[in-house]
Write a structure and sequence with these properties.
The chain is built from eleven helices and eleven strands. It is globular and about 50 Å long. The strands form two sheets. It has a six-stranded parallel beta sheet. Strands 8-9-7-10-11 form a five-stranded mixed beta sheet. The chain folds into two domains: about 130 residues, Rossmann fold (3-Layer(aba) Sandwich), CATH 3.40.50; about 120 residues, Dihydrodipicolinate Reductase, domain 2, CATH 3.30.360.10.
């Protein structure tokens, strides 16, 4: 397999280092808006090669899988191009799919061009349960996310509300609403809300609560679901990525695990 990874930040870096060890992976092409972000990878890993953004179209024709690990803007810019060529894509900035027209376009392109769109579970647990229960009916899906002020810093939703995170002394709810609203106001913090929305009841019906806790150094998610299957409550306390406190280390590991699964012949827990 040959892979192109768009974005060499925290997720792209961990993903590259992990899949570099997979014997089935022959080549990893890397690109980023800033070439300096990829230097630590290309200098240390022999299977890697940097390509400029203006070379992407010719490189896409050579690979089996493109991984977007950059931003919602990058997903919106490059995903249609990838799918039109019939190349499989893995999307980490899942919040881009909260845009109804973009989601419909990408899903249609994947079907027309026989390409696959992969969305890893990311930094949340319980997606397998939501997926299984979706064959029945839901009465509630609620995601409660807790992050430190450092993780939430500069989120548009906080700037809009003029909230001073440095003044907080105890856990404080900074957002309550739909997943669609949460993704717009906290685009770098709640990609997991998009993943859950796609699996369950959609972006408008999925409830999201975001808590800023000045006493924590973890990124925590509690997923609560109720429906014809019964009730489910899943909780995870993630270690933030050392490169980006807004991103959980598990998000990158889930992408690597997904690629390993794609490469394998036995899928457990599908």
């Amino acid at each position: 397999m040959q892979i192109l990874i768009i974005g060499c930040g925290s997720i792209g870096s961990v993903l590259t280092q992990t899949v570099h060890e997979f014997s089935e992976v022959e080549r990893i092409y890397l690109t980023d808006q800033k070439r300096d972000f990829a230097n630590h990878l290309t200098e240390a890993l022999e299977k890697t090669e940097y390509v400029d953004l203006d070379q992407l179209e010719e490189v896409i024709d050579q690979v089996d899988l493109v991984v977007e690990a950059a931003s919602q803007n990058a997903a919106k810019k490059y995903l249609p191009l990838i799918l039109k060529k019939g190349i499989d894509a893995m999307v980490m900035s899942v919040g881009a799919f909260a845009d109804d027209s973009f989601r419909a376009e990408c899903f249609a392109l994947a079907k027309t061009n026989h390409a696959k769109i992969y969305v890893p579970s990311g930094a949340v647990c319980g997606t397998d349960g939501i997926h299984a229960a979706s064959s029945g009916t839901f009465t509630e899906i609620h995601l409660i996310t807790t992050k430190s002020p450092k993780s939430l810093k500069n989120a548009p939703g906080l700037l809009e509300a003029n909230l001073d995170l440095d003044s907080l002394v105890e856990p404080t709810v900074v957002f309550e609403g739909s997943a669609k609203e949460a993704i717009g106001k906290f685009p770098k913090n709640v990609n997991v809300a998009a993943t859950i929305s796609l699996l369950g009841v959609g972006f408008e019906e999925t409830k999201v609560t975001i808590i800023c806790d000045p006493t924590t150094d973890k990124n925590s998610h509690v997923l609560v679901a109720k429906g014809s299957f019964g009730e489910m409550r899943c909780e995870i306390n993630n270690v933030p990525s050392p490169m980006n406190p807004a991103t959980s280390y598990l998000a990158a590991l889930s992408a690597a695990s997904s690629i390993k699964r794609i490469l394998g012949d036995v899928w457990i827990g599908i």
